[in-house]
What we know:
The structure is a homodimer.
Chain A: H1 3-10, E1 18-23, H2 38-41, H3 45-53, E2 55-60, H4 70-77, H5 89-96, E3 106-115, E4 121-123, H6 131-140, E5 150-155, E6 160-166, H7 197-214, E7 222-230, H8 237-241, E8 245-248, H9 252-260, E9 264-265, H10 272-281, E10 288-293, H11 295-301, H12 305-317, H13 319-323, E11 329-333, E12 350-355, H14 369-373, E13 378-381, H15 385-392
Parallel strand pairs in A: 1-10, 1-11, 2-13, 8-9, 8-10
Antiparallel strand pairs in A: 2-12, 3-4, 3-6, 3-7, 5-6, 11-12
Helix pairs in contact in A: 4-9, 5-9, 11-12
Amino acid sequence: MDMHTLTRELQVKNSSKIVMLVADGLGGLPMTPGGKTELETAKTPNLDALATRGVQGLSIPVKPGIAPGSGPGHLGLFGFDPLRYQIGRGALEATGIGFQMKPGDVAIRCNFCTIDNSGKITDRRAGRISSEESAPLAISLRQIKIPGVEIFVEPVKEHRFVVVFRGEGLSGNVKDTDPQAVGVLPLDPVAADAASQKTAQVAKEFLKQAKEILKSEKKANFHTMRGFAARPDLPSYEEVYGLRAAAIAVYPMYRGLASLVGMDIVGTATTLQEQVQVLKEKWNDYDFFFLHYKYTDSTGEDGNFDEKVKRTEELDSCLPAITALNPEVLIVTGDHSTPAYLKSHSWHPVPTLLVSDCCRPDPHTTFGETSAITGGLGQFEAQYLMLLALSNAGRMGKYGA
Amino acid sequence: MDMHTLTRELQVKNSSKIVMLVADGLGGLPMTPGGKTELETAKTPNLDALATRGVQGLSIPVKPGIAPGSGPGHLGLFGFDPLRYQIGRGALEATGIGFQMKPGDVAIRCNFCTIDNSGKITDRRAGRISSEESAPLAISLRQIKIPGVEIFVEPVKEHRFVVVFRGEGLSGNVKDTDPQAVGVLPLDPVAADAASQKTAQVAKEFLKQAKEILKSEKKANFHTMRGFAARPDLPSYEEVYGLRAAAIAVYPMYRGLASLVGMDIVGTATTLQEQVQVLKEKWNDYDFFFLHYKYTDSTGEDGNFDEKVKRTEELDSCLPAITALNPEVLIVTGDHSTPAYLKSHSWHPVPTLLVSDCCRPDPHTTFGETSAITGGLGQFEAQYLMLLALSNAGRMGKYGA
């Protein structure tokens, strides 16, 4: 059974506040046998104090052994089964630059490329053209008109941009035009099902007009299209949980993911301190706050153990300002592990801490991967964390009589 | 979602080696309150050294409280949901003697029996006739001809043999003819669904001809048929995991199970030492090795605690030769528990140890049921173990962007 069938039925309204602080890529690994992880190495007096009051455990983002991307990682934390709900590449890219997709929209990742006189691709990334050069070119494609379809073109970075089609009868099941090779012609956009025929036709017309517009360019004289994807159909926090939810995130990707589940994107913070300031300002307007902290992930991706330790300590230092607000439920977790040792997202379960006045604390007085193994939350799939949040906030009635 | 949908998409090829050492029936129980299990009693310095480097936990073969047979026990370890994929008895028996079933085949377990002049069974096992006597009789049944069906008859042991029907339109849902009693007539083979009508008719004709061929025998003058079963439709290791897999097993049953998931059966070892020798010889030819060790199960089934302890120590002694090969991932587990105390397969979760350079070790320095409770792998369903194996070997990309 979908857990949202339950939460829709059992949700209870009250004045409680829930804060979910997501330290991206929080979980780690020791660099040497017998060593400590990044989180265990970091001096985290505030997290440890919360561990003493709270209960910890290990969150499995998807299933044991599966390393998730940011999309499924966050969907799980938001209480959506990440194997059921999938966000297509184009939709994730559009979301990641803050584009607000509407139901029925189809988003496409595009790459500027170079073609020769015969139309064959000579460079799939147009010489990795700079953002400064490519953005005006992407914007020039906004002059493309196709009857019955509204078109959005948004620059991304370097050779990348996003196209979104809005209109009746569009579906996202269209094959990539990038042949993944040079010396060959780009492929035609081909519908993989009947419902996507119109999308394929619109894409073909878009490519035709784009070729004409770009023809005098030296490097970026054409583009490919891939990752066609409709907006995923995700029910909202308000509907499934009865929560007015706000996202306080610096990076567009996480703002976008939160907006897909109906959170309001609030503030324009660029540092964690500023994010906490936004939290304070918006405290009375929402029931649920998603705070996203990026740097535990990016430092892990860089393989920089010491910097990840520092960034974890920075995270720790922001906690007193959050606990001073006295949220009924405070959760500190991550969407996945990003061990500096692996320089990538990993499958390892994520240390997760929950504090409330009725959380049934475990005996741990520090927060980390090793203590979480024997924490009171045990090992659990991330998609159940929102149920724990709601119950600890007194926002879930009992199931059955 | 079927995990193989993911592994097909996310699999990555590299040069890593994965060894899965399955000690059949590994988990146990204390014989007296407060006592230790077989594994905890055994002196296992090598397993303990691996526990220090690795991470352990408890594998739940099917679901909590379910004691599996060898079939579902191994399917789980191989990453196949044992509640979804089922192997019928006949298919398991045919597989167990190394018969290569093809899709559409139906296999049947047959027992020679003794009937009296009125056709009633006087001995359901034909006096437990010796293999020497029964094998020629089974082979004599190969003269049976039935139009439109290819027939295979293979001796097994003592009174047992296997019949396989191959042809169009055969299904395996036919009821046993063994009445499970003496002094009564054997039953007719009855189809339990429309698709199995032809199989039932063929079986009836087979029994008629067999009766004629065997009529002058003193002991084995007829036979029963039971466990009718089509070949299970299992995707292969190569296809779902991208692994060239080899099985090094002494007993035909486990060789057969491995062959159903597309593993090559290599070597002719009869001892664990010889199995490890085969492992060395085949090291460069495969990515994944399944080593099966039977005696932790058979001694448990015998209720012989001390002998199971000894066999566990024998298992331990073979480990240095395996670790000397430096597999990227080494797993030691069992397909189920077989406590000497119960003299049978049981539902208890199975101590499972995984060693790799990125396994996130837990603090344990011994391997056993009690330490596994607080191991870093937690309690997990066996069907996820292959995901962990692949990820630890760097053979799984991330799920979603």
